[in-house]
Amino acid sequence: MKAHLYRTILATVMAIPLGVLGSDRLFAQACAPFPAGVVPFAMLHYISAPNSAGDRLMAGEMGGRIKEGQIPLPSFPNQRFCGSVQMAPGLFVEAYVPTQRELGGDFSAFGVPLDPATRRFNLTTGEFHMDPFPGNLIPIRWGFREDDLTLFGFRVWRIPSSAFSVTLSVPIVLSLAGTNNSFYTSELTLVNRGTADLMLEFTYAGVFGEAWEESGNVTDHLPAGQQRILPDAIAYVKSLGLPISTSGGSGGTLTVRASGLASPTDLAATVRTTTALAEGRAGLAYSGNGMWKTFTGATTFYESFDSPYICGLRQNATDRSNVAVMHAGNPEDGVVVLRLTVTSGNPPFESRTLPDIVLGPGGFHQINEVLISNGLSLSNGYVRVERVSGTAPYYAYGVINDQVNSDGSFVPPVLPTDGYPELRLTIPVIVETEAYTSELILTNTSASQQKVDFSFVAEGIQVQSHRAHFSIELSAGQQLLLPNFVQYLRDRGIPGIGPRATNYVGALIATVPAKDRDGNDGRGVFIGARTSTPSKDGGQFGVFYPGFPLEPDRMATTSAWVYGLQQNSETRTNLALVNSGLAGGDPNTFRIELFDGSSGQKVNTIDGITLDSQGWVQIGNILNWYAPGTASGYAQVTRITGKNPFIAYAIVNDGAQPGQRTGDGAFVPMQLDVPLFAAVSSGAGYWDY
Hints:
Layout: H1 24-30, E1 43-47, E2 56-61, E3 85-88, E4 91-93, H2 100-103, E5 121-122, E6 127-128, E7 141-144, E8 151-159, E9 164-177, E10 183-192, E11 198-209, E12 215-222, E13 227-230, H3 233-239, E14 250-261, E15 267-277, E16 280-287, E17 289-290, E18 309-314, E19 319-327, E20 336-344, E21 351-353, E22 357-359, E23 364-367, E24 380-389, E25 394-402, E26 408-411, E27 422-432, E28 437-444, E29 450-457, E30 467-474, E31 479-482, H4 485-491, E32 504-513, E33 525-534, E34 540-546, E35 548-549, E36 559-566, E37 571-579, E38 588-596, E39 602-611, E40 616-619, H5 622-626, E41 632-641, E42 646-654, E43 665-669
Antiparallel strand pairs: 1-2, 2-8, 3-4, 4-9, 5-6, 7-8, 9-10, 9-14, 9-17, 10-13, 10-15, 11-12, 11-14, 15-16, 18-24, 19-23, 19-25, 20-21, 20-22, 20-24, 25-26, 27-32, 27-35, 28-31, 28-33, 29-30, 29-32, 33-34, 36-41, 37-40, 37-42, 38-39, 38-41, 42-43
């Protein structure tokens, strides 16, 4: 064993008892210390099903977090590293010391066929396709970066079947004054979907208000199956003993850690940040991200997964746009330096690079009204975020705020997405009713002109198929903001689009060729929508949602979870389903199981929900109708028949019933666990940003 190797102290997680050799002392003498500073995977594709010995395989991209010669060879068969190992950012588990054959990609002795990661969707089975490696022999697709000889490329690591320790990174929690006399507070929803109680450790780092640079750790207990909704996240962590000064307002980043999880997806955190108005509240929602699902520097031979775009930004009389970045790593990850480039979505599509942003652990930086910051004067644009230096994970996002009432729409980061042979994106719902209209956002970050083909399905479309087909062309670098999309179709005479008096509610499918006829790359097209309703003060209450690509981490094929359902005197929740239609014209049938968040007990099952291809349905006030008396709950949505991928989501609305309070909605996306941590025999298993 090399002398320079030493045991890494994992101060942020609980030790997991191993007991393999009969005593902790014997184990400590027999285990191997894990190399300091090494994090094997920057991106995870999947974790396999166990073999007959109970062992599993982790597969993913090394992404430059391990150097040549850092990993020792075992002293005896099945030797383990000491304690839990950080196999991916924020994800700890026991791990075996890899053998020479395993380092060379030979897992022929494993027993269960090892599947590679692919993005191909199988139209026959309705699942994402996986091809086993012949003989479990993995072609070594890795290399060395020329600058520091760190490894990158697809690799596999063997682990025992043991509990996981995870870290979730929450972008921001607030109790703070904002523009136009707004005051934001953050509601925190915590879910333990597992069968074991969890001890949660919270780390708060102040970045706003009097709590600037205050930080600390506190703990709390979350029973198995429970969902806990905390109205004020800052007040909550303060009540646990964190000394935060809140007299002048405060805000900061929050991480949530837990050990003993059977699956890393058993723990979830969601935040809804709102501001009080005369008639109620308005705001937005966002999820706590597994640290391994932030931007970690992952690189394959073909592309980088480390430079996202924030699209749909605008600055005008009705809206303003902010962009924020955060350090999503551990204290030992050090500083990360990020560079933001702003591009105009209107001709001549000029770009400007902003001053570099330096973030330490827990750091956060927001650029308010980014399109008119740093000498810019843009009404329409998008931002690219790039890593300049440092290896720490980071996260980035945008917020579009109404200029009158400060209602916000959360804009998630996106990466250029491949399509084979085309890129297909599903917008869950486009609306034109008496009260609501949908804006469509189209961004082409690529260097070539792109033609996007659309299919809009809604009962109000006055043709036999209830489908409207049309195309839109985007110049290289162009961003189109179409305020009332159905009116846009009406103005262009699209067949089936009748007068405004008709209601149009349905899904929108967009298709972009992976390569155009001249061979130009078709990646880089982003599509999103924002559905809004007028507010009494002359502003708008809106909710933003992106287009979902046909990828295993974005589309469900078996089941999905939706958290944060509420029903009380101030809040109601709608649950919606979309049959993407991407596998053909067949319908899907679904089952929805509802769970009481206070106990984790199932309170009802809704069967017989059938959706035609590209169909959409929303169940309003779902807890009120199907689980009366349940104030807090969550749902599991399962595809029973059919082969089309689907989308499930919730809208948390202000007001116990329609027409009450502001009615403002916050979009809560589904949570998937099958694609990332799938049995290899299921045919699913790819993780991508």
